[in-house]
Amino acid sequence: MNQTYGIVAVTAAVVATLVIGSAGLRVSRTTSDFYVASRTVPPYLNAMAIGGEYLSAASFLGIAGLVAAQGAEMLWFPVGYAAGYLVLLVFVAAPLRRSGAYTLPDFADSRLGSRAARRVAGVLVVGVGWLYLLPQLQGAGLTLGLVTGAPRWLGGALVAVVVTLAVAAGGMRGITYVQAFQYCLKLAALLVPAVFLLLAWRGDPGPARAVDEPPTFRRYTQVTVESTVRVRIEAPLRAGVTGAVDGEEYTGGPLVLDPGVHEIGAGTTLRFPPGTPVPEREPGDGRPGSASGWAAPLSGGKDEHPLYTTYGLICATFLGTMGLPHVLVRFYTNPDGRAARRTTVIVLALVGGFYLLPPLYGLLGRLYAPDLLLTGNTDAAVLVLPERLLGGLGGDLLGALIAAGACAAFLSTASGLTLSVAGVLSQDVLPSLGVRHFRPATPLAVAVPGTVSVAAGGLPVADAVGLAFAVAASSFCPLLLLGIWWRGLTAPGAVAGLLTGGGSALAAVALTIAGHPAGGWPHALLAWPAVWSVPLGFLTMILVSLATRDRVPPGTEAAMARLHLPERPADRTARPARRGVTTP
User: Fold this and answer.
1) β-pairing, 221-224 with 269-272?
2) Nearest Cα residue to 277 out of 337, 362, 357, 212
3) Which region among 91-100, 362-371, 458-467 has the lowest average model confidence (pLDDT)?
4) Under a CB-based contact definition with an 8 Å cutoff, are residues 497 and 537 in contact?
5) Are 490 and 534 in contact (CB under 8 A)?
6) Contact residues for 391 (Cβ-Cβ < 8 A; gap 6+)
């Protein structure tokens, strides 16, 4: 990719974010403006903002990389990410808006009348937000490093600074317009290049079949591995080598690798002639490798129990969306429950349309960038395809557009997460002084994950995203569904369920990241905990609530009526008459 064009594109995305975000400073004056935009955001604008903050780096880059490396079974990621809004639409969107809360801890407090439930929910919101912010900042470092050649830490630091300025300047009202713009940019950044890439693929005189196993290098290819990797070769393979293979040094001469597992040292350069099969990475090195049945669902890949892991993925993505604080807070900005439902329907269309594109990039990446399967940098497939298929000025311009879209993906999701975490910190951690402490809470919301992203640059970002979804699904999903639909929920039951469900998911995935256990059913159960941790959270809340029936809050009937009865017609059409009016 042309670095000059990349730098210009990224700079333009950053400047646009700051300009649009600062415009909110002129209209954000009250607490309601900063936290929920005075609940006056129309459905179409709110839906675009939700799409902007929800479609993160994992959606823009990660899905294409997973599909390129592991195949059809990875399509459950976009399915789960989009289908999570069906659950929101049916069970949560309208009642959550009618609750009148600003944040998830507000909902827990108003529904249960418990400071303990509010504090536990606040801790989990901050924890999930920080866990989700960490991969955004690390992904920003990786992408901006590829696009501009800058050090990896600089990308994360840049995103942290830009997000802090944009959120602190305009609050929810300003960031709504920022995220709506960023959704449009991300959609254009994938859709426009996809048209030209498909035309180039169709005009290719020798198109390869993506389902071929193993994939092959279509032309003479030189690959340099950044870190030591282990590869498996099924048939004798001839390549030029400069560096270390199996502990022996080579200076550029040809080498025939026998079938079996070989270790390639860090910094080694391999040169493959056309038609050479791509060596398969051993999954033990922690990176995705080529699946033996790329086009076959449940082919196993690197998982020993593919059916269980598929259900674990479905549970985490379907139900985790419901518990993501930066998504839920946007429903508080709608004028009423009816508008919240309309927002969710529009989000389904926007997100569903977007998720048709990343699998296409994954397919083309497997065809035209097979070297990424060997290096493990499959997330870069979206970024390198314009240069590989088109080249020249057209490829450089389309590559710059994709780079701007990737930058928008980091900024939009990080903005939403920072906003939700800062709202909780300003209300439940710092002395409650409204907007006066919202702005000081904003840099604090970014500082912790920003520091961790610099200090622990090698932390697997995919594990961090999975951890956030698993914890959200296991804690807030039971709280919201039972809090909205069951009168018998008590504060002790909610606290016990939050701690049991969210705590068990947190412990399970933390053990997996630490590498214990290494395989078998124990590894599958801990790596994909949502299958059992979500039911555990529900069961704990129900059983403890039944055991403490005398602790049902006295205002439960009124709270349930507020959640489920439609608003009066006058409420749906009401708007603040002038600047500075705070809506309830």
Assistant:
1) antiparallel
2) 212
3) 458-467
4) yes
5) no
6) none
| Residues 461/467/469/472 CA torsion (nearest 10 deg) | -140
Q: Is 229 helix (H, G, I), strand (E, B) or coil?
A: strand
Residues 6+ apart with CB under 8 A from 23: 170, 174, 177
E-state strands within 78-218: none
Alpha helix stretches (DSSP H) within 218-332: 306-320, 325-331
- CA distance linking residue 275 with residue 218, whole number of Å: 6
Write the burial class of residue 274 (CB in 10 Å: 0-12 exposed, 13-18 middle, 19+ buried).
exposed
pLDDT, tens digit (0-9, with 9 covering 90-100), for 411-454? 888 877 887 888 788 777 665 555 556 677 778 888 888 777 76
d(CA 181, CA 13): 10
| Calpha distance 470→531 (Å, rounded) | 9
Tokens of 368: 């035209």
Residues 6 or more apart in contact with residue 356 via CB below 8 angstroms: none
Q: What counts of helices (H) and strands (E) characterise the chain?
A: 25, 7
Please give the Cα distance from 205 to 190 (Å, whole number). 24
Helix/strand/coil (H, E, C) string of 524-561?
A: HHHHCCHHHHHHHHHHHHHHHHHHCHHHCCCCHHHHHH
Number of other CB atoms surrounding residue 135 within 10 Å: 28
CA distance 52 to 132: 15
pLDDT at 303 over 80: no
Residue 94 · residue 390 · CB < 8 Å: no
Write out the E strands in 111-227: 221-224
d(CA 12, CA 278): 37
Phi, psi (deg, nearest 5) at residue 263 = -105, 125
pLDDT tens digits, residue range 98-119? 887 777 888 999 899 898 999 8
Residue pair 65/324 in contact (Cβ under 8 Å)? The answer is no
Whole-model pTM? 0.84
Q: What span, in angstroms and rounded, lies between the C-alpha atoms of 530 and 536?
A: 9
Strand partners, 221: 272
Name the residue with tokens 């459905």: 43
The average pLDDT across 562-571 equals 70
DSSP label at 501?
A: I
pLDDT for position 542: 97
What are the backbone dihedrals phi and psi of residue 362, each rounded to the nearest 5 degrees, phi first? -65, -40
Alpha carbon distance 36, 193 (integer Å): 35
The DSSP element (H or E) to which 497 belongs, if any, is helix 491-497
CB of 193 closer than 8 Å to CB of 401: yes
Structural tokens at position 480: 């919201």
The full length of the chain comes to 584
Structure tokens at 253: 């001469």
**What six digits make up the tokens of 73?**
């079974």
